[in-house]
Design a protein that fits this description.
Layout: E1 14-18, H1 25-33, E2 42-50, H2 64-83, E3 87-95, H3 98-108, E4 113-118, H4 125-129, H5 133-140, E5 144-149
Parallel strand pairs: 1-2, 1-4, 2-3, 4-5
Helix pairs in contact: 3-5
C-alpha cells in the first residue's frame, strides 16, 4: 500500500497555481503543505497574459515578449519548488482576461486543484459590487479550489 494518495494511475494529482505578478515563495510552500497528503503532485505555475480582444482565438504571436517575461519571472520559483522536492512546471497563456484563462486551463487540463492566492478580503459595500478573480474561478471550474490569503 502506498503512503501517498493518487487520483489516477500515471501522473497523479495536478495543482494549478495562477500567479499574476507578486509571488511569495513561503506562502506557496505553506499552502502546498495543506495538500501534502498527495504524493508527488504536479504543480503548474500559471500566468495569463491578458489581451482584450473580440476575435477568437486570440493570437499569441504578437505577445511573445510578454510571454517570455512572465516565464522568466516564474522559472526561478519553479526551480525553487523543485529544490523543495516538488515536481513544478511553468505555463503561460494568452487570454482575454485572467478568469477566462484560469477557468479554461483548469477545466481542460485535468487538474485536481486550483490554488488561488488572495491579496485581500473585501468587506462592506465593495463586496456587493466587485467580484474577485477567486470568486469567479470558484464558480466556474470543475475541480476543487483552495484559497489562501497572502497578507
Amino acid at each position: 500500500m502506498s503512503s501517498g494518495v493518487r487520483f489516477t494511475e500515471g501522473h497523479l494529482v495536478k495543482i494549478l497555481i495562477p500567479i499574476s505578478s507578486f509571488v511569495d515563495r513561503e506562502k506557496i510552500a505553506h499552502a502546498l503543505h495543506a495538500l501534502s497528503v498527495f504524493k508527488d503532485p504536479m504543480i503548474v505555475l500559471f500566468h495569463v497574459v491578458e489581451v482584450p480582444s473580440r476575435t477568437s482565438p486570440v493570437n499569441a504571436h504578437p505577445f511573445k515578449d510578454q510571454i517570455a517575461e512572465a516565464e522568466d519571472r516564474l522559472l526561478p520559483i519553479a526551480d525553487w519548488l523543485r529544490s523543495q522536492n516538488y515536481n513544478a512546471v511553468v505555463r503561460v497563456v494568452v487570454a482575454r482576461d485572467r478568469v477566462e484563462g484560469i477557468v479554461t486551463e483548469a477545466n481542460e487540463g485535468s487538474y485536481s486543484f486550483v490554488l488561488m492566492m488572495k491579496r485581500k478580503i473585501r468587506g462592506g459595500i465593495g463586496k456587493l459590487f466587485h467580484k474577485s478573480t477567486s470568486e469567479a474561478v470558484i464558480r466556474s471550474v470543475k475541480c476543487l479550489v483552495l484559497t489562501t490569503l497572502l497578507d
